[in-house]
Amino acid sequence: MFYKETNFIFNHQEKRICIKYVELKYLLELLTIIFLRGDLSMASKLDKIIYQTLFKNLFSDTCKVRFWDGEEVKFGDGEIRFTVVLNEPIPQKDILTNPSIAFGEAYMYKKVDIEGNVREVIESMQNNRNSFLGAPEKYENLIKPLKNTRSGSKKNISFHYDIGNDFYKLWLDKSMTYSCAYFRSGEDTLEQAQKNKIEYTLKKLNMQEGDTLLDIGCGWGEVIIAAAKKYKVKALGITLSKEQKQAAEERIKAENLGDYVQVELCDYREMKGRHFDRIVSIGMLEHVGNEYLKEYFSIIDKLLKEGGISLVQSITGVKDGGYDPWIEKYIFPGGYLPSMAEIVANIGGEKFHLLDMESLRRHYGKTLEKWADNFEKALPQIRENKDETFIRMWRLYLNSCAASFNTGMIDIHQFLFSKGNDDGIHWTRDYLYR
After folding, report:
1. What is the number of domains present in the chain?
2. Quick one: pLDDT band at residue 150, thresholds 50, 70, 90?
3. Cα 421 → chain centroid
4. Spatial CA neighbour of 175 closest among 153, 192, 158
5. What is the mean pLDDT of the chain?
6. Which domain covers residue 403, as residue numbers?
7. Residue where a domain stops, chosen among 82, 108, 139
8. For 54-58, 75-79, 176-180, which range has the lowest pLDDT when averaged over its residues?
9. Residues contacting residue 323 through CB under 8 Å, at least 6 positions apart
10. How confident is the model at residue 26 (pLDDT cuts 50, 70, 90)?
11. Is 295 found in the same domain as 190?
């Protein structure tokens, strides 16, 4: 039986549907039967009813939906915050099977448009924890085997970071720092906030002149360059991105820091027989994969000197680790967001001493908002080399990530830990804010 008589009554002769309560799967079965009978007009009507049921409890704010035939339906009371435009139906099977990919692709390929702020629309979905897209479990309990072998990791990193340095220069700050900034006040520019983050991170590491520093996933080299300039440490950065390595080496040469800073195209698993006083890794753990977390921290243990200190910064799942299917498919293949508990367990598993753990969630939300604004301002230049599908994909990525941090769907933490007891860390946190 594909419906419950007490829930809705279907009168095929008069082609009227009276719905008191709908379970989407029953409507889908009914839609299939109508198609088989060849009644396409009724199928179209029922298609819209399914979407109206879908949107009824999807957002936490009042909105309007404009359907492919021009009909508009308001959901909620009060002032309309935004309008969702359905240019054509999205297959309901796709929505039920994988809503992240279904809606992500629909926006990429203009099946769906948004009149209003993209980030605010996503926040409205996520703030409604009762909707099927708003539950935190969207990012959790989706653990799957990820192909982050050495060869797989190189392909995954290249997919995202080798798009071209010129592209990233258009919307990152001058330092090309592609990670969470640190806003000491609401008036900080993005550039200042990124300087704040680098300074704050290096202070946590308690850098001393003459120390050796390893940066796993060094990006375009800002951390190792800043460390060498301020603390006169010998710094090595490793990356799997040829574009990043080239740009970092150009900066090192321009700063005359060749005696202090080096960059290697290298997987962290290839680092053997070398030891460092300090190890930092910012925004790289998300690329490791759930099956390699234990190995990752084991390698840090082998590379870190006794009494050494390490800082790992990673986006984290709220309860469990997981991934977003659309982002994994189109933005970060091989990506996995470990939970806070997973990371702490692996730190403890190597008998490190956890010294400090801090959430920077609100900072990353603000960082992404600024990136998204810069991205929109740079559209004339971006359009010279990228098509509209790419632009809509990246717009959705930047805004959805900002929304996810702002609404608490995901978090980000810095984990500071030492190897052994003699770490030299200050007794209080005062030194971080001087």
Report:
1. 2
2. low
3. 35
4. 192
5. 84
6. 150-432
7. 139
8. 54-58
9. 139, 142, 144, 146, 335, 336, 337
10. very low
11. yes
Better-scored residue on pLDDT, 55 or 34: 55
Which of 139, 163, 196 is the C-terminal boundary of a domain?
A: 139
User: How much is the pTM?
Assistant: 0.85
- Please report whether residue 376 resides in a domain: yes
With 0-12 / 13-18 / 19 or more C-beta atoms within 10 angstroms meaning exposed / middle / buried, residue 346 is buried
Task: Yes or no: say if 234 and 208 are a contact pair by the CB < 8 Å rule.
Answer: no
166 part of a folded domain: yes
Active site positions, annotated: 401
Looking at this protein, which amino acid is placed at residue 389?
T
Which residues are bridge partners to 74 per DSSP? 64
> Is the pLDDT reported for residue 357 higher than 50?
yes
DSSP of 316-385, one letter per residue? EESSS-B--HHHHHHT-TT--B-BHHHHHHHHHHTT-EEEEEEE-HHHHHHHHHHHHHHHHHTHHHHTTT
Give pLDDT tens digits for 230-282. 999 999 999 989 999 999 999 999 999 999 999 999 999 999 889 999 999 99
Closest C-alpha to 285, from 216, 196, 231, 228: 216
Do 274 and 416 sit in the same domain of this protein? Answer: yes
- Of 58-62, 354-358, 420-424, 425-429, give the range with the top mean pLDDT: 354-358
Phi, psi of 304, deg, nearest 5: -90, 130
CA dihedral over 419, 417, 184, 398, signed as positive or negative: positive
Q: Which of 337, 372, 340, 336 is nearest to 359 (CA)?
A: 340
- Other Cβ atoms within 10 Å of 289 Cβ, number: 26
d(CA 267, CA 265): 7
* Structure tokens given for 183: 């806003």
Answer yes or no: do 214 and 132 share one domain.
no
Q: How many CA atoms lie within 13 A of 224 on its CB side?
A: 31
Note whether 310 and 284 are within 8 A (CB): no
